[in-house]
Amino acid sequence: MKRERIRRSLFSMSRYLLFFIVICFAVTSSFLLYFHTVMNVTGIEFKRSEIEYAAKITFLNILFLSLIVTIVYAVARTVRIRKPMNRILDALSHLSKGDFSISIKEGVPGKENEFDIIAKDLNKVAKELRNVETLRTDFVSNVSHEIKSPLAVIQNYATLLSSPDLEPSQRAEYCDQIINGTQRLSTLVSDILNLNRLENQEIFPSKQRYDLSEQLCECLLCFEQVWDEKKIEITTELQSDVFIRSDRSLLDIVWKNLFSNAFKFTPDGGNVSLCMNVENGTATVTISDTGCGITPEVGKHMFDKFYQGDTSRKSEGNGLGLALVRRIVDILNVEISVSSKAGEGTSFRIVLPLAIQQKQ
């Protein structure tokens, strides 16, 4: 970096010298042209000694004025161009090496020049890169932790299974734990792949016309075993023949994640309700539970990847479900809202436009 600065300084000095020579040549040529014109117009003949004297005085004046102009130009260039340019180049050098902590001094608002605008934009880029780096680090850390937990379960119970003195009931229990661990690991990998695809690829939803009520019932029935085991009461208010035009596979992910959360946070003997309201060309789907609810602080981060407000239920999920829901509703350009009260439950509402009825 020091060698590069020296090289740039020498290059700048050569340009100043060139500028000085050009100024001297231009003024000298103008002086000679002036004397030649005066002699031709007036017919006055100047003595050699007079011309030499005038030439010396003029040359000294030219030399002095050119030096002053060159110094002013060099100072102005250093202050207005070189210093801000060096700051920008240093910042770019840090960014290229992965150092996103840089911050360039910005100009006074309202008096910004082009370099100030570049510095402002570079500061924004550095800030965004810092945020991305933080998210990447957190993502790797969370993925590593989430993968490590089921792997540890599988390894521990596999080790216990190697004992020859196990009772059949114990062996069955350990096998169930291993199966649960592999299912959890499989779900985690699937969610990560889905989220990565939805976030890093341009998704073009494959929209088709289908019955929303039928889809909701199918997704709800996937959790029949769960509500039977927890003795949860199911309440549904659906209308038949409610057709929408959307990507069925993406909305399947949304409904299943919302149902999964509702059943996960609803205690034994609680209630989960599914309601649909059709009006003004839209269908509003509301999935509610009587679980622990969400505090305002948790609500701020509920759609963040790997965020789990209730750590006591960490083993029942991986914190990616609502992140997937958020990304999908953004892709489909539909409205989602959440209302919750700690200790009373949570309701998710999604508003979908109805499909236009096709003429037969």
Please sum up the structure shown.
Helix content is 61%, strand content 13%. The chain is of the alpha+beta class.
What does this protein look like?
The longest helix has 49 residues, at 48-96. The strands form two sheets. The protein has a five-stranded mixed sheet with strand order 2-4-5-7-6, covered by helices on one side. A two-stranded antiparallel ribbon has the order 1-3. By secondary structure, it is of the alpha+beta class. 61% of the residues lie in helices and 13% in strands. It has three domains: 2-99; 142-200, Helix Hairpins, CATH 1.10.287.130; 208-353, Histidine kinase-like ATPase, C-terminal domain (Heat Shock Protein 90, 2-Layer Sandwich).
Discrete helix count: 9
Biggest sheet record: 5 strands, mixed
- Per CATH, what is the topology of the largest domain? Heat Shock Protein 90
Kindly give the count of domains: 3
| Alpha-beta content class | alpha+beta
The second-level CATH architecture of the largest domain is: 2-Layer Sandwich
The count of DSSP E runs of length 2 or more, i.e. the number of strands, is 7
Task: Give the tags.
Helix Hairpins, Heat Shock Protein 90, 61% helix
Detail the topology: elements first, then pairings.
Elements: H1 2-42, H2 48-96, H3 114-161, H4 168-200, E1 208-211, H5 212-221, H6 224-229, E2 233-237, E3 243-246, H7 248-265, E4 271-279, E5 282-289, H8 296-299, H9 321-332, E6 335-341, E7 345-353
Parallel strand pairs: 2-4
Antiparallel strand pairs: 1-3, 4-5, 5-7, 6-7
Helix pairs in contact: 1-2, 2-3, 3-4, 4-9, 5-7, 7-9
